[in-house]
Amino acid sequence: MINHHLEISERDKAIIDNICNEITDKENLDIKRQLLYSAITLLRDHNDRLDLKLASAAVTEMANAFAMFAPFKEVRKVTIFGSARVSQGTPLYEKTKELAHTFAEAGWMVVTGAGPGIMAAGSEGAGTNMAIGVNIRLPFENYPNTWVAAGEKLVEMKYFFTRKLMLMKESSGFLVLPGGFGTLDECFELLTLVQTGKAEPNPIVLVEPDESNYWHAWENFVQQQVYNRQFADVDDSSLYLITEDIDQARSEVLNFYSNYHSRRFINDILVIRLQKAPSEQRCAELSEQFSDITGGEAIRKIEPSKFEIHDNDHLSLDRIGLKFNKLHQGRLRQLINELNKETL
């Protein structure tokens, strides 16, 4: 659908129609047309050079990143965030390297910011074949680390916002190690996206260094200054796990997908796709347990909708449907945890 404020002349419409006619792949042509409308509006109405440079660079960076990630679309990925200032060989570096290695052994690719410190540890632990880098060009960090620079699984960004998009968009799980302002920014943005439903539910693990208090001190601040002031629901603490144990961190991410697969809204119904749907009795129990987020309506096993059939959207999976209020993502995460017990 074209935004009402994008007024395009008949001449521009004809140009866009001609371009669309030349596009071989007609899939998602409505969105491609919208992108062309937006570009023409920007070119016509904005002459500020900085605005145009920003828009051009952002679109180019995203296009390059999409192309780099495309061959690995079907491979699960975990993103590792953390400080660039951690020295090689330190306990935190070695712990990150070991953690990344366990995911690579499980067939997961490891995405990092491609820089030094924790990012280098993640890339090294994963190995060149399983490491993906999304680098940021900074005056004091000019080059990506060795383990991603040698391969083709690397993209470089000028802007932090496009970089964060790609670090978060492509992954199915997240490990956040200690770091400075940049790491905390990434952690809070990630939690914000999941808490507001702007990102898919994903496992987020805040990995504590041995005998450290980094994330527990962070959680104390969040408890006292955020939860206690009712700036967020205390149930939102279910969106993350704090642990110093590598095996627990790995299990938290991998077990999230032991039964849960994905979700999709069909009108006002949240469809949750599963390897195995709960029994009718178990659905009744869950309906009662989570009535606060369903308005008291039943959670029930359902068949694929006509929209999912049209899109061939994971039709082999079981499904449950619920009328989710979209407000309490922490409680939704608790429901997913319960559903994952079906296969444990």
Please compute the radius of gyration using only Cα atoms: 22 Å
Structural class: alpha/beta
Major sheet description: 7 strands, parallel
Query: What's the rounded overall pLDDT mean?
Result: 92
Low-confidence stretches: none
Strand order of the largest sheet: 4-3-2-1-5-6-7
Task: Give me the count of strands.
Answer: 11
What count of helical segments does DSSP give? 13
The termini sit apart by 44 Å
How many structurally independent domains? Answer: 3
In the CATH scheme, the class of the largest domain would be Alpha Beta
Determine the fraction of residues in helical runs and give it as a percent range. 40-55%
Q: Please name the CATH topology of the largest domain.
A: Rossmann fold
In the CATH hierarchy, the architecture of the largest domain is 3-Layer(aba) Sandwich
Could you characterize what this model shows?
The protein is an alpha/beta fold. It has three domains: 10-69; 72-256, 3-Layer(aba) Sandwich (Rossmann fold); 260-343. The protein has helices spanning 10-22, 29-45, 49-69, 91-105, 118-126, 146-149, 160-169, 181-195, 214-227, 246-256, 280-289, 306-311, 329-340, and strands at residues 77-81, 109-112, 131-136, 154-157, 173-176, 204-207, 241-243, 260-266, 269-274, 300-301, 318-322. The strands form two sheets. A seven-stranded parallel beta sheet has the order 4-3-2-1-5-6-7, with helices on both faces. It has a four-stranded antiparallel beta sheet with strand order 8-9-11-10. The two termini are 44 Å apart.
